[in-house]
Amino acid sequence: MSSKVKYAVVGLLSLLMLVCMTGMAGGNDVTTVLRTGDKKAGSENTTVKYSNKESQAPSAMLVGIDIQEMLEAQVDILLAGSGDEPAEEPESAEEPEEIIPSAFDGIAVVTINEAYLRVRADATTESATIGRMYPQSKGTILEEKNGWYHISSGNVDGWISKEFAVTGRAAEEFVKANYDEAVTVATEVLRVRLEPSVDGAFVDYVKEGKTYPVLGEENGWYLIEFRPGMTGYISGEYVTIGAELANAMTMDEVKAYERQKELEAKAERYGGYLREKTWASEEQVYLLAALCRHEAGHRSYEGALAVANVVINRMRNGYWGTSMESVIYAPNQFQYVNDGALNAYLANPPAICIEAARDALDGLNNISDYLFFRSAKTADVSQFTSWVNVGGNIFYKK
After folding, report:
1. What is the distance between the alpha carbons of residues 334 and 246, in angstroms, rounded to a whole number?
2. pTM here?
3. Domains along the sequence of the chain with CATH
4. Which of 3, 22, 240, 266 is 20 to 30 A (C-alpha) from 142?
C-alpha cells in the first residue's frame, strides 16, 4: 500500500469517528448522508438527516464543517491511491563493460625495453635477487600483493614489480605494438617447403615447440628462416601465431646468457661464428693457452684464437687423437712442444691467451675447419686449396 492510500484511510476513519461523536452529542443516530443541489443558486448544499428530524447544525461540534465534502475528499484520495498505477522502478545501475578474454589473461609481460627486471625472493626491494627478466619476457601470475606479481617463469619462482609489467588485454596490445610476429610449431613435425603450397618442394622438417620470426606470409603459409641463411614456408594450419616471449632466468642462467651474448659480439667483431662447446678441465685450458702463447705470441687475440681452434678441429677430426693432450703432444706437430719450451708457460700463460683458449672452447671459431697453419713469412699460399691470414699465420686446407 502506498503512503498516499495510508493517509487517506487514516483521514477517513478519523472523519467517521468525528461524525459518530457528533451524533452521540446531539442524542440522535446518523442514518443517511444526502447531497441535494440548489440549481438556482448554482451551488451544492449538504443536509444531514437524522432519524426524527433535519437540522443544519445538530451540534456545536459541526458548526462550519461540510461533512459530506470532507468524506468525499477522503474517498477521492483513497481511490486515487488504490489505482493500478505502476510501482516506481528503482533506477537501474549502468551495465558493466563487457570483459573480452585475452590470451594474456594471467600472464605478466615485462615492459622494459633495455637492461633487465629483477625477480626477487619476496614482494619487497629489500629481498634477494633470485633471477632476471630481460625485454620480451613473460611469466605466469600466481598471486598479487602490495604492488607486486608473484610469477612462475622457466626455472624462476619469485616476485616482480607491477610497475614494469602488464597483463591481459593491455599485455596483448603491448606485444603487438612492440614485438615482431612469430610462429610456433604446434604439431610433432612440420614440413618446410620452398613454395607456399602443399605442392611446393619439401626441404626440411621443423619440430614441435620451435618458434620462428615471421619473414612473410602468403595464402596462409608463413616464410621462416629454419636454418641460418635458409628460408622456407610452413603451413599456418599447424602453428600458433604470436610474438616470441622468453622466460625469466635464474642467476646461473643469467651468467650463461651474458656469456653467450659476449661470444656473439666477438663473433661479429672478428668475423667468426659459434659452434658447440668443447669441454675441458682448468688444467687443459692452461695447456691450450700456453700453446697459443708459443705459436701466436702474446699480442694478438685473434691469432691465439685461431691456434686454439686448430687444436679443437684436430680433436674433432680424430687423426691425432680425440683428447687435447694427444693433439698437442702429437709428434712433430708443434715446434715449441717438441723443444720443451711449452712448459715455461703452463703455470702462468698470458691473460689474452687464456681468454682466447676459453672462447674457442666455448664455441667461438674464426678459421672454420682448417687443420694446419704456418708462418705467413714462409707459406706458399699457391699450394693451398683455401686459406686465411690471421695474426701473422696462414691457416689453410691442403
Report:
1. 46
2. 0.60
3. 3-81 (no CATH), 182-241 (2.30.30.40), 271-397 (1.10.10.2520)
4. 240
